[in-house]
Design a protein that fits this description.
The complex is a heterodimer of chains A (361) and B (171).
Chain A lengths: L5 H8 L5 H13 L1 H13 L11 H17 L2 H11 L1 H20 L5 E2 L2 E6 L6 E6 L4 E3 L6 E5 L3 E5 L4 E10 L4 E17 L6 E6 L3 E5 L3 E7 L2 E8 L2 E5 L5 E4 L3 E5 L4 E5 L6 H9 L1 H6 L47 H23 L1
Parallel strand pairs in A: 8-9
Antiparallel strand pairs in A: 1-7, 2-3, 2-5, 4-7, 5-6, 6-8, 7-8, 8-11, 9-10, 10-13, 11-12, 12-15, 13-14, 15-16
Chain B lengths: L3 H23 L2 H21 L7 H20 L20 H17 L3 H13 L3 H8 L3 H21 L2 H4 L1
Helix pairs in contact in B: 1-2, 1-3, 1-5, 2-3, 4-7, 5-7, 6-7
The chains are: A alpha+beta (361), B mainly alpha (171).
């Protein structure tokens, strides 16, 4: 009698045999005790064991590892997206707060802006003027046989002689500080500078190739040439910095200062002993006598309200020398505030008288 | 890369049978936990550069678990018996349940420990997961004939071991 093999017994124990094979195997088992015992042993052996459960921490560990891998794998945008998805609510809250703060700040932002300048160019008769409105970045080069007057708001006046080369580097008003700032660069020529506004409400400085001039006085002459920068102070004082040697001094009225790449020198001198100042004043003699800005007055202009609010004027000149043609003339038609105009005229006359008086001496 | 949701779904589907497979193969609860963890880490790493085929992922999990278990067994040369609290379901006499269960469990474990890992794996898959020979062959990447041959040899070995220990007389 052939015994059943282990696989058949296993299949029988697991109820995997076909009905024919099962019948045949069962018939054999009824007659064979060896196979019967073997089947019992196999049944015991293959009895499934009670399943066990692993710790629940394993899944969290696996997920932690997964998130770490994801963060390494993800691109910046994906990371951002993932982060936003994970932290939607706190991010929305933070964004709301930031927007709120931004709106609050925006509504209280200081009203700052560029302060325009007006350039007056006398015509051939020197009794009428053409005007130009200039802003930050504009450069003015005065041609031969020509003069001009540049007004920074009604704070500073520049008399520009032939050959003067000046750039308006900075010109802005900070309303939160109620302070105006002007910075100019003079590359050549002779310029007479006179300030009308208080230095508490205004800061201005002039840069030349050799010097940095920080005026705290009211009037001075600057002569920039290849030899250096000459400054004659008429009234008040000026802080002078030698840009090459970093030497700084407080320049006094009645003295001529020369700043070169090597040093700053000075000596006492009467104003009209300096030929270049004499010549300069003479070239403005006619203007001083007949000065009448009329409808082009900077003082009358609505851009001259001391705040610089009207900074977006139409002039958009290139940063080149100005072709002083009549076509470029702009009309500034506000005719209010005649008082200021008169004050300016008076000052100009006084200046003229002073110069005549000193000449007489 | 496999998504978090896919990973959770995969774990929920297979963690029990893979864990029990490892547990009965290694005989240690803690080791089975470690290897289960390592198995799923491997699948995350694999998914970094490859696309997971969810039709064959079960095979991947079993093969990984199997290889990790073999490595563990080779390194540790297991000599201890299976954990004491491991229970068998099929018990003939309720009165002698504990004594009989413990004894037969111990002897089957002893018998299995003297076998190669493939034979052990086949036996455990057959016993605990009710896989067919074809399924085991696919999962372990071996031929069905090898499964049959190994299974028969394993049964013979265990039966012979149990006979030697007198269990055929008890039954």
């Amino acid at each position: 009698m052939k015994h059943l093999d282990e696989l058949t017994l296993l299949a029988l124990a697991k109820n995997e045999l076909t009905s024919v094979s099962k019948k045949s195997a069962t018939m054999h088992l009824e007659q064979c005790t060896d196979c019967k015992k073997k089947l019992q042993l196999i049944q015991v052996t293959i009895a499934p064991q009670k399943p066990r459960e692993p710790s629940k921490d394993i899944l969290s560990d696996i997920l932690h590892y997964h998130s770490q891998m994801q963060s390494i794998k993800m691109s910046f945008i994906q990371k951002m997206y993932h982060y936003i998805q994970l932290h939607r609510r706190p991010l929305a809250l933070s964004l709301g707060i930031v927007i709120g703060i931004a709106i609050a700040l925006f509504t209280k932002l200081p009203d700052s802006g560029s302060i325009p300048h007006i350039l007056y160019i006398p015509d051939a008769s020197r009794s009428k003027f053409h005007t130009k409105t200039l802003n930050e970045g504009h450069r003015i080069i005065i041609q031969e046989n020509s003069t001009a007057m540049l007004f920074a708001n009604n704070d500073i006046r520049f008399q520009l002689n032939a050959g003067a080369d000046i750039t308006i580097t900075r010109s802005y008003f900070n309303s939160s500080l109620s302070r105006k700032t002007y910075i100019y660069e003079i590359y050549g020529g002779i310029v007479n500078v006179k300030s009308f506004a208080s230095h508490q409400s205004m800061h201005y400085e002039l840069k030349t190739p050799d010097a940095l001039i920080q005026p705290s006085g009211t009037e001075f002459y600057v002569n920039v040439s290849s030899e250096g920068t000459h400054i004659y102070i008429v009234e008040g004082s000026v802080i002078l910095h030698n840009t090459a040697t970093h030497e700084a001094i407080e320049a006094e009225a009645g003295k001529l200062y020369t700043i070169t790449k090597h040093n700053i020198t000075y000596f006492d001198i009467a104003k009209y002993e300096l030929q270049w100042i004499h010549d300069f004043d003479m070239s403005f003699k006619d203007l001083s006598d007949n000065i009448d800005f009329g409808e082009y007055s900077a003082i009358h202009s609505n851009i001259n309200d001391n705040t610089g609010k009207e900074c977006s004027t139409k002039a958009n000149l290139e940063k080149d020398s100005l072709p002083f043609s009549n076509e470029d003339t702009e009309s500034l038609k506000n005719k209010n505030d005649i008082k200021d105009m008169k004050e300016l005229k008076n000052e100009m006359r006084q200046l003229k008288k002073e110069s005549k008086h000193k000449q007489g001496k | 890369m496999i998504s978090r949701e896919e990973l959770i779904s995969l774990y929920s589907t297979y963690y029990k049978e893979i864990f029990n497979y490892i547990y009965h193969l290694t005989g240690s609860y803690e080791t089975a936990e470690d290897i289960l963890h390592e198995t799923f880490i491997k699948i995350i790493e694999y998914s970094n550069n490859n696309t997971i085929n969810f039709n064959t992922v079960k095979s991947f999990l079993y093969r990984t678990a199997h290889n990790l278990s073999i490595n563990y067994l080779k390194k540790n040369k297991i000599t201890e018996s299976i954990d004491e609290d491991s229970n068998y379901l099929l018990v003939t006499n309720p009165v002698d349940e504990d004594v009989f269960t413990k004894e037969i469990k111990k002897e089957i474990t002893n018998a299995l420990q003297t076998l190669d890992t493939i034979s052990c794996s086949i036996f455990i898959m057959k016993r605990d997961n009710n896989y067919t020979n074809e399924e085991i062959a696919k999962l372990l990447h071996i031929s069905e004939r090898t499964v049959r041959r190994k299974l028969q040899a394993t049964l013979l070995h265990i039966l012979s071991h149990l006979k030697n220990k007198g269990f055929d007389e008890i039954l």
